[in-house]
Automatic annotation (TrEMBL):
GO molecular function: arachidonate epoxygenase activity; heme binding; iron ion binding; oxidoreductase activity, acting on paired donors, with incorporation or reduction of molecular oxygen, reduced flavin or flavoprotein as one donor, and incorporation of one atom of oxygen
Name of this protein: Uncharacterized protein
Compartments, record wording: Endoplasmic reticulum membrane; Microsome membrane
Homology family: Belongs to the cytochrome P450 family.
InterPro entries: Cyt_P450, Cyt_P450_E_grp-I, Cyt_P450_sf, Cytochrome_P450_fam2
Source organism: Propithecus coquereli (Coquerel's sifaka)
Top-level taxon: Eukaryota
Iron among keywords: yes
GO biological process, any: coumarin metabolic process
Main location: endoplasmic reticulum
UniProt feature coiled coil, ranges: none
GO cellular component, one term: endoplasmic reticulum membrane
Amino acid sequence: RAASGGLAGSSPGPTPLPFLGNYLQLNTEQIYDSLMKISERYGPVFTVHLGPRRVVVLCGYDAVKEALVDQAEEFSGRGEQATFDRLFKGYASRRRRASSLRHSEARFPSQTGISPPSSLSPSNSHLSLNPPHPAGAIIDPTFFLSRTVSDVIKPIVFGDRFDYENKELLSLLRMMKGSLAFTATSTGQLYEMFYSVMNHLPGPQQQVFKELQGLEDFIAKKVEHNQRTLDPNSPRDFIDSFLIRMQEEKKNPNTAFCMKNLVLTTLNLFFAGTETFSMTLRYGFLLLMKHPDVEAKVHEEIDRDQAKMSYTEAVIHEI
């Protein structure tokens, strides 16, 4: 979201056309290259119009630091993302998520027996894939990492775990991955620019909407189950804690603790937590593959002393 004044207030940019904005100057299949080309003319901070939407683009370390560090409060908001805004409709905002978590009971994680997946246990510094793959085989770690991350997040949100080969879990992960992948496609970029029109047109975006609705329906069923089996004195997970808070706030007409917010906040926690973290892990492993000397030092430090891993922590912060 562009802040008023400062970096955003006076940023130059190419002249937009009515409704189309700067669409004709952008290649939706290579949006990054298009933006970098524009920055060569207008500098590290410039404005483009993605359809009718005004967007301020920051290029380079200095510009990003000024925005996210020096002017952190002004740039702390999140701009529109049409694909997901259609589902969330203003519910499950960051402020509301923080409020929900802050008021939730803190005791339920210890009751769920949360522990790291065995493949990530301290005694096993190598990731083990099951079934094993022969040496030199090409492995796509996407779903393995998503399953691993969801195994940590799910007991907090839902209070139980899926088995790694659970078909329902694999289906959910595929739906999440598919909806995120759509946003990076040329059609996804077009939808972000012209969603008011493309909402009513056939195309891949309609399948994404079905998948997102499928995710919401799954969460709604989990919430319904928790409602039927709720013990206010013994919350099992985030959903239980939210339901208890709903009961406490039922006479408050301005409360954020309502059923719609519960479903979409839970979805947001599971969806965003699983995919964004597993994506970060994938990029981290890619970086370590490109820098085997760094990987070797990290591995050595983990094997030597897990209580003091300053080098590993520095690598994680860099990632």
